[in-house]
């Protein structure tokens, strides 16, 4: 089964992850986060399956995150508000976001990709 790989083509980390997937022969469906970000309900499902803190889904080093002052605002937002915020703009989502429908990884750590995505 192919994994879904949410990416931003200009992102260097995404390109490294894609190169890894290609080298390992891992089949994937590529989705551009800026053109087709996951919905709030999709993000909620990914968040729940990941077991991660919801803040890990935010691209905290991104310009959009800083422009919106989210560093100071996130603590006063509910999880649903955070998910709506993420769904509103793919540039807010930490990338790459990779899933097979059950397992979810956020960002690219080769050791995680080895563990979860290597055939």
From TrEMBL:
InterPro entries given in the database record = Arsenate_reductase-like, Thioredoxin-like_sf, Tscrpt_reg_Spx/MgsR
**Classification via PANTHER family:** ARSENATE REDUCTASE, PROTEIN YFFB
Family per record = Belongs to the ArsC family.
Instruction: From the Swiss-Prot or TrEMBL record, give the protein name.
Output: Arsenate reductase
